[in-house]
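Memo to structure team: turn this sequence into structure tokens by end of day. - J.P.
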Amino acid sequence: MILIVDDDSAVRSSLSFMLKRAKYETKTASNPREAIEVVRAESPALILMDMNFTLSTTGEEGLTLLKQVKIFRPRVPVILMTAWGSIELAVQGMQAGAFDFITKPWNNAALLQRIETALQLSAPVEAGVERDGTELKRGHIIGKSKGLMDVLATVGRVARTNAPVLITGESGTGKELIAEAIHINSQREKQPFVKVNLGGISQSLFESEMFGHKKGAFTDASADRVGRFELADKGTIFLDEIGDLNFSCQVKLLRVLQDQTFEVLGDSRPRKVDVRVVSATNADLHKMVAEHTFREDLFYRINLITVKLPALRERREDIPLLVRHFADLQAQLNNLPRTDFSADALNFLSRLPYPGNIRELKNLVERTVLVSGKKVLDASDFERQYHREGEPPKAAEGTSLAGLTLDEIERRTILQTLDQCKGNLSQAATSLGISRAALYRRLEKYGISVGD
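Reply from structure team:
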């Protein structure tokens, strides 16, 4: 049963009619007192609740009701209803434990989708039914460590829902592969999977890239252009590097995520899409929200489910499998004989700090396989490629790692790479297998200036 709480009889009737047509049982309440009576007497599967009542236009009454509901039924998902201008109020509700929020007037299809998602994610998992990650279609995901299997178990739990997912983790940990796994294990598998690097789209081109434009909409618009959201209709859109999105563009993105409608530049007619949103970032969005560089309402819209990827140093048992995989790919691509690895080579590779994570390991393996031309690679082959200029760090030489923390090893590696690259940050980032933005964050973390 779905409980509808709103002091507007027209809203209650409209929602009740829509939900009954979708085969849901409903009950209604016109004020907080009636709502609490239903919540205490019965156990609704979900609650649709307005934030503003006749006695309060500030939302305080709605927030109080939400907190009371969470006392009596802490696991019942609550979807809040509010006007667009009161999204800040909805954010307060999310902080108080609400599952999601919608704005009035709502889109029926989008609302039904969110209700279905909330019910799927809140349903108790029967013993032996939840997927543990071993039966998923993995794509190119390699590994069997506990950290990775925990991630894949979460993917198995959420893939078949329409819940927005935020994938976090350091640069090079494979966020795009996890996004693809979510898509290929979902009901949208046969529909488009559209990848967008938001960090690579300028503010001036954002609307044209994401929503499209009509010929003549602006000076250089010589032909119609279909935007990324329209291309992803019925499928999944992957918003990579969402933490790099300009603050003013965040508002435009929030609106289309809110009700799945947008306007093409040069055409005022609203268009609707049905898109599952998966986002990714290596930035600390919590910190960015606190610093007012990332909108809090957008943050709550994209991270209904958060999947945090472990760094490669946290899943070292996967390194031999990854090494074999990358070497075999190079052999296939370049028509080379299969390469083998000595025990000391795998031991050497398993002990490196990898600030660039899997991307750095991939670059190192591919470079060594192509340059050496040997059938069996040993530690010295990888050591030469790991530090092609200058001496390898003592931290990489077997027992000299003793007593050093991973942060100390990473700091030392960054300092030596900067020295080898003569302070050139672009070269250093490329050598480390990370982006310039990721290198800047590590410089700040370890208090390193280029002069060091």
